Each structure stands twice: as C-alpha cells, then as structure tokens.
Amino acid sequence: MRILLGTIVLAGCASGAATHSHGHSHVAATSPRDVMVPTPAGDHHVALLTAHLAPSGNELDIFIETRDRQPAAIASAPFEATVRIAGEDRTTTFACAPAAERPAGEAAHQCSHFVAAVPWMHPRDTVRVTGWAKAADANVELRWEGFRPFRYAHVHEQGAVATK
Question: Is 38 left (phi over 0), alpha (psi -120 to 50) or beta?
C-alpha cells in the first residue's frame, strides 16, 4: 500500500531529532485544526504537519490519527524526511515525541506524534516535506507541498527565527 505524501525513509536514530518537552499540549485532538496540514497516510489514517517556532530552534511536528481524528500510534522507529526550501534539499530525522507530548497510555514501541529539529527553517519559508513512514505492515509515503511554517505553527514563541 503506497499513498503519495512525501519521501520519508526509515532510518536509525540521528542527532538532529528533537527530544524535549515544551510544556504545552502536542496532542492533535486538542490542538487547533487550522494550524495543521493534513495528508492521507494509508487507507485509514491521516498525517498532520505543523510547526513549532522558537528562538531555541524551530521544529516540525507530524501527528498520525485515524480518519475520525483519534491518535493512531504507528511504529516508533525514527525516520528521515527530505525538507526542501528554495530548491535546496536537507535531510532531517523525525523521532517519537517525548511521552509528555503524546496521548497517555501510548505504548513505548509505538508513536502517534513525531518531531524533527529544523533550526535552519525560517518562519516565512515555503517548504516541501517528503518521506516514508511505517504504518501497520506497510510503508506509507508522506508529502506536503507549499507548507508555510509561520501560517501553520501551533506555537510562535517571541523571537523565533532561523539560524541559516
């Protein structure tokens, strides 16, 4: 089963993955829907992309949920994605978000919320994110085109900029 959404390649853990808690909710079901860009993730799931803009470093968040908006934990192996800004491709790693940022009771080996550090992403950039993630027994292709971090940020911390 392949659904066009991006070019995320399953990979081992990498040092660029964001692994800290921000002290606010990151559960998709309680976050504003207007700051998340959905894309199909297989036959039964949706992947939602949003940004966290902060002076300490910008991040991209991916939430996986069922079509009826319930968190859907998938394999928690970190995966790589290609982030294209102004024709330049960069690889980043999406890792399972800290437990405090995921729904209570989510199994340790599964995850419905992934985070990637993207300190070089500027809030006003236009971004393409592509990659593959493992959902159930299938690899699912993920793709977002024309993503605007400033427009689709669930958090805008004062002074958020990129260190390009």
Answer: beta
Q: What is the pTM of this model?
A: 0.79
In CATH, what number is assigned to the domain containing residue 90? 2.60.40
Q: How far apart are CA 140 and CA 53, in angstroms?
A: 27
**Rg of the chain in Å (alpha carbons):** 14
Q: Which residues contact 120 (CB under 8 A, 6 or more apart)?
A: 85, 90, 162, 163, 164
Q: Give the count of beta carbons closer than 10 Å to the beta carbon of residue 49.
A: 24
pLDDT range class, residue 77, cuts 50, 70, 90: confident
**Total domains, the chain:** 1
Alpha carbons 55 and 119: distance in angstroms, whole number: 9
| DSSP structural state of residue 36 | -
* Dihedral sign of CA atoms 145, 7, 41, 123 in order: negative
Find the domain containing 34 and state its range. Answer: 9-156
Confidence of residue 127 (pLDDT cuts 50, 70, 90): very high
What Å distances lie between residue 3 and 46, 121, 141, CA to CA? 11, 26, 5
